[in-house]
Amino acid sequence: MTALPIVETQSGDVSIYIPTNVIISIKTFSD
């Protein structure tokens, strides 16, 4: 799952990558 956000970050979608990464982390800790 980490590889996909990294690819998006390289495309310049840093603003999308950061909140997405946080949401994934929250869901992971919730589980």
How would you concisely characterize the structure shown here?
The protein contains two helices and no strands. The chain has 31 residues and is an all-alpha fold.
Key attributes of the depicted protein:
31 residues; mainly alpha; 2 helices; 0% strand; rod-shaped
Q: What is the strand and helix layout of this fold?
A:
Blueprint: H1 3-10, H2 14-30
Please tell me about this protein's structure.
The chain is mainly α and 31 residues long. It has one domain. Helix content is 81%, strand content 0%. It contains two helices and no strands. It has helices at residues 3-10, 14-30. Helix 1 runs antiparallel to helix 2 (14-30). It starts with a helix and ends with a helix.
By DSSP (H or I, 4+ residues per run), the number of helices equals 2
In angstroms, what separates the terminal alpha carbons?
Answer: 16 Å
The largest sheet, given as strand count, sense and whether it forms a barrel, is:
none
Series of secondary-structure elements, N-terminal to C-terminal: HH
Indicate the percent of residues in helices.
over 70%
Assembly status: single chain
Query: What percentage of amino acids are in beta strands?
Result: under 5%
Name the overall outline: rod-shaped
Count of the domains: 1
- Mean of the pLDDT scores? 66
